[in-house]
Design goal:
Blueprint lengths: L6 H10 L5 H20 L7 H13 L4 H25 L29 H13 L4 H16 L3 H6 L5 E4 L2 E6 L9 E4 L2 H14 L21 H15 L10 H12 L4 H8 L4 H15 L2 H9 L4 E2 L2 E2 L2
Antiparallel strand pairs: 1-2, 2-3, 4-5
Helix pairs in contact: 1-2, 5-6, 5-9, 6-8, 6-10, 10-11, 10-12, 11-12
């Protein structure tokens, strides 16, 4: 195993030149360190295309998620591309003038959601469970969050970031301005149902504090403690467990999918659903419609009925 690797001195320079959010930069560091450790372990000083392909295969054999592998390869490809154009500027070895990752194929990502939506009955069960526990301040807060996420399709991070000043009355409607995924400011909004507004007013009245955030942890006397995404995930996962709904396919993000599917099933159009979930591309929204169409497709049943006609079983003929 190599004790030192030339990329250990190079990748920090690349990191310094990234114009990305701190969390994303952290991911880049983590994945590049993992890659360099692999090269050191197998005594690969200057990687070739075949080495990167082998590294991808190792990740597949380790049964890493496809999204993780794609992210790792995307980061490595960006790193080697930067090296190719920057090696002279920073005086790096001429070995890096060749972009070994340029033609390496990334893993295909199945255009389907990895989490299932709740059915109408399951959504009602979750809401009822949360409502039954709303006799405490924290229980009321959790009930409000569940109803908010199912009716508006908000992401956990958007719920966590929401501030009281983001709640507005605009053209006769109650709205919540949000800082969406990958955004730096509150530049979009969702309409709030009357029931959510009523719960928020009750929650604020009982809280009786100066906390600027819509949802507080309620565990300290601080006036600015924000309810973190992890705390939201923990509290709502407990509710899913209490209803018996929690599984690998049903998590907190399922509430966003539930919002989309229920809107389509109750007459909402594809475009209305896209706007509701604030998808940049309507192709993302179309996945919901595609899945519903497949679910209601009776093709396999028709084939089964026709192909089994005339086939005898236990002296009984299929009719």
């Amino acid at each position: 195993m190599l004790k030192n690797h030339p990329l250990e001195d190079i990748y920090p320079v690349y990191i310094e030149n990234l114009d990305l959010k701190p969390r994303t930069v952290y991911d880049y560091q983590l994945f590049l360190k993992r890659y360099i450790h692999y090269l050191k372990r197998y005594n690969i000083k200057y990687a070739k295309r075949k080495d990167l392909i082998k590294y991808k295969q190792v990740m597949i054999e380790e049964r890493l998620a496809v999204t993780t592998i794609r992210k790792q390869i995307t980061i490595i490809k960006g790193f080697y591309k930067w090296l190719r154009f920057s090696y002279k500027e920073y005086g790096f070895d001429e070995q890096y003038q060749i972009d070994i990752a340029e033609s390496v194929r990334n893993e295909n990502l199945n255009r389907a959601f990895r989490k299932d939506p709740l059915t109408l009955e399951e959504a009602q069960l979750l809401i009822q469970t949360a409502k039954d526990k709303a006799d405490t301040l924290i229980g009321l807060r959790n009930y409000c969050i569940v109803l908010l996420m199912i009716t508006t399709g908000l992401r956990i991070i958007e719920v966590s970031r929401a501030k009281r000043t983001d709640l507005k009355r605009w053209r006769g409607y109650d709205v919540l301005y949000i800082q969406g995924k990958g955004r730096l400011r509150t530049d979009d909004f969702v309409k709030l149902p009357k029931e959510v507004i009523r719960l928020l007013e009750e929650y604020f009245f009982l809280r009786n504090d100066r906390n600027p955030f819509v949802f507080s942890s309620n565990h300290t006397i601080l006036h600015n403690n924000q309810l973190s995404p992890d705390a939201i995930r923990y509290q709502l996962t407990k509710l899913l467990n209490d209803t018996g709904l929690k599984s690998k396919r049903i998590t907190i993000h399922s509430l966003r999918h539930t919002c989309a599917v229920l809107n389509l099933e109750t007459g909402g159009t594809i475009e209305q659903t896209r706007q509701l979930l604030r998808h940049q591309s309507i192709e993302t929204t179309m996945i919901y419609s595609h899945n519903l169409t497949k679910l209601h497709d009776e093709s396999s049943q028709r084939i089964s009925k026709n192909i089994l006609m005339g086939v005898k079983e236990d002296d009984q003929e299929y009719k």
